TrEMBL record:
It holds the Pfam family CENP-H. Its main location: nucleus. Signal peptide: none annotated. GO terms for cellular component: kinetochore; nucleus. Residues 40-238 form the Centromere protein H C-terminal domain. GO terms for biological process: chromosome segregation; kinetochore assembly; mitotic spindle organization. Keywords: Centromere, Chromosome, Coiled coil, Kinetochore, Nucleus. It comes from Trichophyton violaceum. This is Centromere protein H C-terminal domain-containing protein. GO terms for molecular function: kinetochore binding. Belongs to the CENP-H/MCM16 family. The keyword Ribonucleoprotein does not apply.
Length: 244
């Protein structure tokens, strides 16, 4: 695991490595822990949220005139209303948490830390900000790599498709001369032609496999392929040559 972490660090850009080094140098931020009383308060706070959610669900009125024929519709409505109740309670909780976190954070950052908790909070805030910058750098690098990979895959698939088109042209020519081929008296020439046909079929099958693999990779990579004409054509290709 340690070797894997070192290899991962070496593959990062210098700026990102520097940020991660700074973030991991402060061992006191890693050793921070809540007191028993603080832990109990947080557990009670979570429990209060669960109780509020249960209360909101119990207070939600359900229709009593539900008929058997529209049970599916009522179930869909109940599910939607359940999600709305949960979302409303979650938003309320986030608002409360934001208010509770804002004042201590501002005090720790903009005032001289006067208590151990303020100093510990300031270290954690600094580490959070550094890790956020490192994350943004890695995300940008990742996006750039994905785009380069997609462009390379598009170029590769276009080259393969061009080769396939040439192969299909040859197949059409051989098919148009099928009757003449059957009358070729030269057995050696006839065997060579059959060998070319077999090779073309193999290339066609290989092209189809590669194209579908690359198309699936682009579609599942997370890249916005629909906004790129080349990528969209690659993903939505109707395989016009696959069945020729």
């Amino acid at each position: 695991m340690a070797q894997s972490n070192r290899d991962g660090m070496e593959s990062l850009e210098a700026s990102t490595r520097a940020l991660l080094d700074i973030a991991t140098q402060d061992e006191t931020a890693e050793s921070f822990s809540f007191s028993q009383k603080e832990t109990e308060i947080l557990e009670l706070y979570d429990r209060v949220f669960e109780l509020k959610l249960e209360e909101a669900l119990l207070n939600h009125e359900l229709p009593e005139d539900t008929q058997v024929e529209d049970i599916d519709v009522k179930l869909a409505e109940a599910e939607r209303e359940l999600l709305e109740v949960r979302a409303r309670v979650s938003v309320q909780r986030k608002v409360v948490e934001s208010v509770l976190m804002t004042e201590p954070s501002l005090q720790a950052v903009h005032s001289a830390p006067s208590s151990p908790l303020d100093r510990a909070l300031l270290r954690l805030i600094n580490k959070r900000d550094i890790l956020s910058l490192a994350y943004e750098n890695m995300l940008t690098t990742h996006t750039t790599c994905i785009r380069k990979l997609s462009s390379t895959e598009v170029s590769n698939i276009q080259n393969i498709k061009q080769n396939q088109e040439l192969v299909q042209s040859l197949l059409k020519l051989t098919n148009s001369e099928k009757s003449a081929d059957e009358e070729i008296p030269d057995l050696e020439l006839k065997e060579e032609l059959n060998s070319l046909k077999s090779e073309n079929k193999q290339k066609k099958a290989q092209w189809t496999r590669i194209k579908r693999i690359v198309s699936a990779s682009v579609a599942a990579s997370g890249v916005d392929w629909a906004s790129d004409e080349k990528l969209e054509r690659l993903v939505l290709d109707d395989d016009e040559f696959d069945d020729v």
